[in-house]
Write a structure and sequence with these properties.
Elements lengths: L7 H7 L8 E7 L2 E10 L5 E2 L8 E7 L3 E8 L2 E8 L4 E5 L5 E4 L3 E9 H11 L17 H15 L6 H20 L14 H12 L8 H7 L4 H12 L3 H17 L6 H7 L5 H12 L3 H15 L1
Antiparallel strand pairs: 1-2, 2-9, 3-8, 4-7, 4-9, 5-6, 5-8
Pfam family, one: HTH_18
Keywords: DNA-binding, Transcription, Transcription regulation
InterPro entries: AraC_XylS_family_regulators, Homeodomain-like_sf, HTH_AraC, HTH_AraC-typ_CS, Tscrpt_reg_AraC-type_HTH
């Protein structure tokens, strides 16, 4: 049986990398696999890239390094030669057997977006399914892909700190953007189901609070509320002012503050109890949200408590 899915180890083999490249994946759209893989080779051996099994899927490639005179091939024929610039986005149709000549250092992020994810987005959002993405062989100046790529690179560098809610949210955003920008997808305007009911909001917050580590996927929470992932994400953000993964980070900080008002647990213990990957992760997130380090906040809080007594 031919394996499909142009990400992770298979993408590494396609680019003739010695090790499997770092990858993050979600299944938040009708169980469709959507993934991002970071590929880099500073000393490649010259030769044509490998070939993927044809499938109804796309690669959205964000270039992180200039690649002059890139030779692109499709369906066994030389298609074009072009200067690829860092920061540009290219789309490749995996039904067309895209390949390119590897003859200089490269560094890219590749988003794997199968047809099932695009169809799932349309079905859940009430919009029409798109025919195809526009895969003309030119680079796009796409600020949204760059922003999403920059956010996910943090997770690729520190996968233990990238909770599944964050990955789901960013992949959903990427899929929706690509469908709109390169497939002319339009959301169906929702008027009657635009907000979460009080019980839905309460249940969603309870589910998030019960899983401080953020391991539960968005799809599971949305399904329990009888909503699509895309509708739940938009409605939750409207109700709380934050997407689910950001709301969870703020809740972790609130939990950490409660724990740090006691003299018992160390900061490393607080980090784990509040759902952070480690003390370093805790310090980065807490400092970004609160504006001071956990240690400084704790000293001030305990000092105030002593004075009050």
């Amino acid at each position: 049986m031919t394996r499909t899915g142009a990400y992770g180890e298979r993408l590494g083999a396609f680019l003739r990398l010695d090790e499997a490249p770092p990858t993050l994946m979600t299944r938040s759209l009708r169980n469709a696999e959507i993934a991002v893989t970071e590929t880099r080779n500073d000393n490649p051996v010259t030769g044509l890239s490998g070939s993927f099994a044809a499938e109804d899927a796309y690669l959205v490639s964000l270039k992180l390094r200039d690649y002059p005179e890139c030779e692109i091939w499709e369906q066994g024929r030389h298609l074009t030669k072009a200067d690829v610039h860092a920061g540009t986005t290219y789309l490749y149709d995996l039904k067309a057997d895209p390949r390119y000549l590897i003859d200089k250092p490269f560094h890219s992020l590749h988003f794997y977006v199968p047809r099932s994810a695009l169809d799932g987005l349309a079905d859940q959002s009430g919009g029409r399914r798109i025919d195809a993405l526009d895969c003309i062989p030119v680079g796009h100046d796409d600020a949204i892909v760059r922003h999403i790529g920059a956010s996910l690179r943090e997770g690729l560098c520190r996968p233990d700190e990238a909770n599944q809610l964050f990955i789901d949210h960013m992949m959903l955003a990427l899929t929706a953007h690509v469908a709109r920008a390169y497939g002319s997808f339009q959301y169906k305007v929702e008027t009657k189901r635009g907000a979460l009911t009080p019980w839905q909001l309460g249940r969603a917050c309870d589910k998030l609070e019960a899983d401080l580590g953020g391991k539960q996927p968005l799809e599971a929470i949305a399904a329990e509320l009888g909503l699509s992932v895309s509708h739940f994400s938009r409605a939750f953000c409207t109700a709380t002012g934050l997407p689910p993964h950001r709301w969870l980070l703020h809740h972790r900080v609130r939990t950490a503050k409660r724990l740090m008002r006691e003299r018992g647990p160390s900061l490393s213990e607080v980090a784990i109890l509040a759902g952070f990957a480690n003390q370093s992760h805790f310090t980065r997130v807490f400092s970004a949200i609160v504006g001071v380090s956990p240690g400084a906040w704790r000293r001030d809080a305990l000092g105030r408590a002593s004075r009050d007594q």
